[in-house]
Every structure is written in structure tokens, then in C-alpha cells.
Amino acid sequence: MRKLSNILVTGGAGFIGVNFIRYLLGKCAQTSNFKGRIINLDALTYAGNITSLKEINENFEETKYFFEKGDIGDRTLVEKIFEKYAIDTVVHFAAESHVDRSILGPEAFIKTNVLGTFTLLDVARNIWKDADGVLFHHVSTDEVYGSLGETGYFTETTPYDPRSPYSASKASSDHLVMAYYHTYGLPITLSNCSNNYGPFQFPEKLIPLMILNMLEGKALPVYGDGKNIRDWLYVDDHNSAVWNIIQNGKIGEEYNIGGDNEWENIKLLNVLIDIVAKKINKNAETIRSLITYVKDRPGHDRRYAIDCSKIKRELGWKQTVSFEQGLERTVDWYLANTEWINGIRSGEYKRWVEKNYGER
Ligand code: NAD
Ligand code: TYD
Questions:
Q1: DSSP-derived pairing of the beta strands 188-193 and 135-141
Q2: What is the CA(42)–ligand 2 centre distance, in A?
């Protein structure tokens, strides 16, 4: 039996991690049926925002929820946390996660995604030894598989072919996770998910960036011809899959998670424009005129598409939020949370964007 009593969530102040902790302790707590404690280890980089967990902190601090600020690559700290909280499960979200940033500065991606993951794995191996009921779950991306042509899907057996420094660093971390399973017998599971969207996503990623630019009347920058394809999944559906794997997944197995929901960027943007226009009572054509085709991202992967039949078949997982519902919820959230947005935009992010892109 898995223990699942003291879960170390890394990167729990980032987009998916925040939603995962809220999924286990917040509104989905009844369905998730989680009874243990969560220890959130996050370095609070530009992408980490602890105010995203305000209610969790107020309701559960020092009972079911604990926050530790720090770097996953800090071995002494990670060992201390394992001992202090008797960690029996790791859910590893912490990463540098944005492709554009990885092109401009790959080093942080190697440090956190490769060396940081190595440190976590190595501490888990040394402290857990042959303990029963422990698990290291690694959260990864479909980008490790590279780029698809017009047809075909990524399956769990698709060879890795990463093309950006981000995806190369994630591929490297996935290989280390598998190596620790095969070589040392560390009990691991691994998931590779498609593009997530939803509340609390940092507004450098496509969907929140476009929503905020629409609200501010700024240009909507579309890379290249706008025909690159991504498969989109609402963040709670990703997290229900992760939670399912942690409880029921087979040790040593990799699971693909996806939305069965492929969209060309430009088509997605047009749908998003229609939703935002309706919500803020503005003419959609006025917003559409903000679309600006800009220089393509170097090495821009053309198409991602996930075959997630394995997790459906073996673990009974399925998506529950339609794209229309999910986009509506997301737009509503960004419209209602100006304080969160202002907090993020006034800090490090704003300075970074201005330095690298000029005003956006
Ligand atoms: P994010 O960038 O929003 O959050 C990352 C979090 O990790 C932040 O809170 C940051 O402070 C923290 N962090 C970064 N470096 C750290 C370090 N050295 N030590 C401790 N904490 C550190 O990322 P996200 O979108 O929430 O993604 C979470 C995970 O899911 C990542 O591993 C990513 O590769 C994976 N993933 C993301 C998507 C997506 O669409 N966003 C899709 C598939 C997989
Ligand atoms: P992004 O959200 O950065 O996710 P990823 O690169 O990990 O898939 O980008 C999603 C898609 O949107 C990708 O094809 C790049 C494109 N894109 C734009 O066209 N304009 C933008 O300003 C951004 C951030 C992304």
C-alpha cells in the first residue's frame, strides 16, 4: 500500500503546483479523498507566487499544509525536509518551464530541471533505501517527444527527440528518473502532459498572455504563421490524472496525459477573442485587429498531439472539462483577479519582459 501521508510537492507555488495543492486541500478535497499532509518546497522564482495559496495557508497552515522556501538543488535543505516531515511521497513539479526563456538563457533550466531533479532523486534514494509504500512522481511534458507532422500521436513508446533547451532539460530529467528506477530500484512514476491552461498561470504563456493583452488593448503577438498546433488540457484535469497515477499507477511506468483537443494557435486565439469580447462587452473585431504576426520562435515545434489511451484504459482517468468551459472559467478568473495580476506584473516579470522584448 502506498503511504501518501507526507507529500513533498516541489514547485507548489507555480501554476500547476498551486492548482494541485488546491485540488487536494481545496474545492476538490472531497473527490480527491486526500487525508495526509502537504509540504510545499518552492524557491519562489519569478514564476512562483505564494499569494496564490492564501486561503490554503490560512486554513491549513501547520496542520495539513507547510511551506518551505528553497531550492530543490540545495541538498542539505532537501535532506532536512525529508527528515523533518518524514516524507513518503514526492510530486515533482518544480522547474523552469517557459520555452522562450530557455532560448534566451538555458543555464537556469539545466540547474533546476536537470541538477535539481538529480538532487531530489538522490536524496530520496539515500533516505528511503528499501522503504515500502514510498513514491517519487515526476511531472513532465509532451515536448520531450519533439515535433509531429500533420498526422500521428505521441505515445509512451515514442522515442525522445527534444528540440528546445527546455524540452532537452526535461528529457534529461525524465531519463534520470528512469535511471534511478532501473539502477537503484527507486519507486517512480512519470507523466508527460500536453499544454495546460487555467487559473494562476503566469502571463508569459499563450492563453493568459493573450487574455491580459486583450484587456489592455495591447498587440496579440502570434509567432510565425500561427499554424503551430498544441493539445490543450484544463489544469484540474491534469492534476486529477497526476493524483490518479500517484494512487494507482504502476511503479516504473510512464503515462501520457492529454486533452484530445488540438488547436492551431490562430484558431484558438480567435475563439478566445470571441469569449473575451462577450464577457467585457466589446466588439470582437476591434480586439481581432490587435493580432500581430511576429518573428517565429527559433526551432518552434510544429505540432504536439498526445495519445492518452493508456491512462484511460489502465487507470480509468478521463478529461472532465470541455475546452469551451475551461476557457470561460479561465477568462472569468483573469477578469476577477486583478490584484494577483498586478502583483505579478509589477515585479521581476515586468522587468524581464521589458529587458528582453521591450514593451509587450
Ligand atoms: P511554473 O513555471 O508556473 O512554476 C514552476 C514553479 O517551480 C515556480 O513556483 C517556481 O518558483 C518553482 N521553482 C523553479 N525553480 C525552482 C527551484 N530550483 N527550486 C524550487 N522551486 C523552483 O510551471 P508550471 O507550468 O506550473 O509547470 C509545472 C511542471 O509541469 C513543470 O515541471 C513543467 O515542466 C510541467 N509541465 C507543464 C506544462 C504546462 O503547460 N505548463 C505542461 C506539461 C508539463
Ligand atoms: P507557450 O504557451 O509558450 O507553450 P509551449 O511553447 O510550451 O507550447 O506557447 C504555446 C504556443 O503559442 C506555441 O506554439 C508558441 C505560441 N505563442 C505565440 O504564438 N505567441 C506568444 O506570445 C506565445 C507566448 C506563444
A1: parallel
A2: 25
